[in-house]
Design goal:
Blueprint lengths: L1 H25 L5 H8 L1 H9 L2 E5 L2 E4 L2 H20 L3 H19 L6 H32 L4 H9 L10 H16 L9 H7 L2 H25 L6 H22 L1
Length: about 260
């Protein structure tokens, strides 16, 4: 698991850097001089008393800076736990902590309808993907008798898996790939991405596009490293998903 540990440290560093950048972007404030040029002196004095915090040039959040920063830190805590988790239960709880914070952050701009629409879509599809992930964990637990990744690796290495439950393992791994595929926006589980990224405030979109992917990929690699001694039908499925994702992404960028 040394490779997974090193990757976890790298992903944790990426998460922390992305969180810091998101916080710095949110600290940008509209100066009284700029407000005066746009709305006049009276409006400038009135807005200055409202303590407005600029989340992006188009997304202003009034008197909710503390909530925004707290949610960024909560999501960062979930991603940091996700990159260092060595148990399926820890992975799932960390993913849910991360997801709950992101659901709120995506809909953090109440003045635009598409922000709320993006948050609702993200919540519904995220809950659906979490169901796949949890069901996959349950099947792997039924097949191996444990949720600890190190114990699963040792269990598969000595081939002590009870034969009646052996067919559950590939099904569980497949469901895990579906759940993680949603988190990292693999094709064909990427359909939520355009609506959510366009509806979310710009710093939140930047935060999600970097740190969420890094944390989810680190967790996925930890899981696959634990399954390395098992017959690998998931390698072909993962390769197909990777090829489809890269191909569709590049073709879409050329449009």
């Amino acid at each position: 698991m040394a490779l997974a540990d090193g990757l976890g440290l790298f992903a944790s560093a990426a998460v922390l850097i992305a969180a810091g950048l998101a916080l710095l972007l949110a600290l940008e404030r509209v100066s009284d001089f700029t407000l005066a040029e746009k709305s006049g002196p009276a409006a400038s004095q009135s807005d200055a008393q409202d303590h407005r915090v600029t989340v992006s040039p188009r997304h202003r959040v009034t008197n909710r800076a503390g909530a925004y920063y707290s949610l960024i830190l909560l999501a960062t805590a979930g991603m940091t736990a996700l990159t260092t988790a060595s148990d399926f239960m820890t992975i799932f709880v960390a993913l849910e902590i991360l997801s709950l914070a992101l659901y709120i952050l995506v809909g953090f701009n109440p003045r635009e309808a598409r922000s709320g629409e993006a948050a609702l879509k993200y919540f519904l599809l995220g809950a659906f993907a979490s169901g796949f992930l949890l069901y996959g964990i349950a099947l792997i637990y039924a097949a191996t008798g444990t949720t600890n990744l190190d114990q699963i690796a040792r269990h598969l290495l000595v081939m002590s898996m009870p034969l009646p439950f052996a067919p559950l393992l590939p099904v569980g791994v497949g469901l895990l790939l579906v759940g993680f595929g949603f988190k990292v926006a693999l094709v064909p589980f990427h359909m939520w991405t355009p609506d959510v990224y366009q509806g979310a405030p710009t710093p939140v979109t930047a935060f999600m596009s970097v740190s969420t992917k890094a944390a989810a990929f680190a967790a996925l690699i930890r899981v696959l490293a634990a399954l390395a001694s098992y017959d690998r039908p998931w390698l072909l499925a993962l390769a197909v998903l990777a090829v489809l994702t890269m191909t569709l992404g590049n073709l879409a960028a050329l449009r």
